[in-house]
Predict the structure.
Amino acid sequence: MTIAVILEQVPDVVEELEIAPSGTDLDRDTVTYVLNEYDDHALEEALLLAEASGDTVVAIGIETTGEIDQALYTALAKGAHRAIKLVGDFEGSWLSTRATAELLVPVLRDLAPQLVLTGVQAPDDLDGQLAPTLAALLDWPHASVVIGTEFANGHVRARKELWGGMTLTVEFVPPAVLGIQAARQAPRYVPVSRVRQVMREATIEEIEVALPPHASITVERLYVPEASGQAELLTGSPAEIADRILELLRTRGLL
Amino acid sequence: MGQRIVVLVEHLAGEATDVTYELLGLARRIANADGAVVEAVVLGEAVGHLAERLPADRVLLLEHPSLHFLAPEPAARALAHVLGSTPPRLTIVPNTSLGMDVAAWVATRLGWPLISYCRALEHRDGRWVATAQLFGGKILADVPLGDEPSVVAILAGAFSADAVEPGSPGTIERVAAPAELEQLRSRVVALERPEAADVDITRAEKIVAVGRGIESKDNVELAEQLAQALGAVLAASRPLVDAGWLPRSRQVGKSGLKVKPKLYMALGISGAPEHLEGMKDAELIIAVNKDPKAPIFTVADYGAVADLFDVAEALLERLEG
């Protein structure tokens, strides 16, 4: 059987983010893209499941950045069995979650996986998260904020985080869609040499897709938030900063 | 805006969560400004007592055994059933673990627009504009609500619960469960509460918290030494816990624990919204981070743009010297 994992390249929020002159998108020429970290966890969870069950992992990405190949080859290098890239007139576009889901649904219906895993959220998913959106369109059961999965007697079990350390274990009759918050173990490392080898030997399958009409929201303006409050800065050498911190703690009776 | 504003009530173990009252307060503010009525949707099993004390003009109560824990599939299907029969103008859902299960599902199923991660909803130039935070809180997006029914998912803590006016509870209307709740393809197996931890960070007076800036598991030792020297306990942001460097009982944030210590020293923590939600009420927040634009500096009382290792070592030298 098949486990599908949806991978998305997203702007690296560690880097400076500049807004395009249009005011409604990032300046995509200045963006550094990385794999959505939650998708990396979804891939890890899929690989762990497949290693236990013998299932096939298929990594799927939409080409919006010109860089999705890197994520897909890395997934293959880590152990995914197939990689599929959806191509169309999207490069440089900020696809909404609804649009992303609309593009993926026909492919997933054809693939008929037992499970679809994807990151619980992405830094740019303004109109909601992908897992529940896909679930609604596919009419499959779902869960978000998942931190562990297992197959048991033909069912899928997922541990979903609530809050305050509480978890809810939900059992599904597959197929199901899960939004992964964290895999059971940290995403595995794969050497660059291995990725390069896979790039020489493996093939990414391409599927041409077109976006059907769908409901959408209109972003009027993107902007950098004004600081609601701002810390009083402690400046100087590390020693001077340490002295100032200790002085603050003593003044407040915290030392 | 007019008409009806509906709030999804989040609850567990027979109690509504704090965010529910924050959303009801928001709905009341909008209603007061715009002549709307506030309705609360209560989904659950044996939750009539909740419906009886909610500050809403009307409560829509749908009870079914599958809704005992507000599990994803039944909660989403039940909410879509309640909303779809007579679409309200605006539906407000918490952007929490529950909200993430239902908001996008319901909006997609009903063909309505959804704006997630909202931290403001304001009336400007004759229309309502939602402000959502993106890219880890580094960018905000203004999204006007159109004329169609809309769903907004609101971040916990974005609005005060103080706006909820105590008053006589509204009328309660029972909604019959849809047949689809008898044909679910998922069921809850267990609710697990956290095991007693070695340290209860929610009770700690002083916390040293580390984030990605700590770089490696080996470096956590330095932070532990500093915490001990300060008489503090060590906590962490989510990525370190996910990496297995610290137990989940030490995680501060939205899905971890909320803390309110006298001192919160954040080392190498950028301040993602999910983390800030768990610690912003600390009495004194001191942040050390190399990135001068790190969002942690917007909630910190004092901040140092510096290498955390240099500052931590200098602190240790003085405390142990």
User: Anything to note?
Assistant: Chain B has a mean pLDDT of 92.
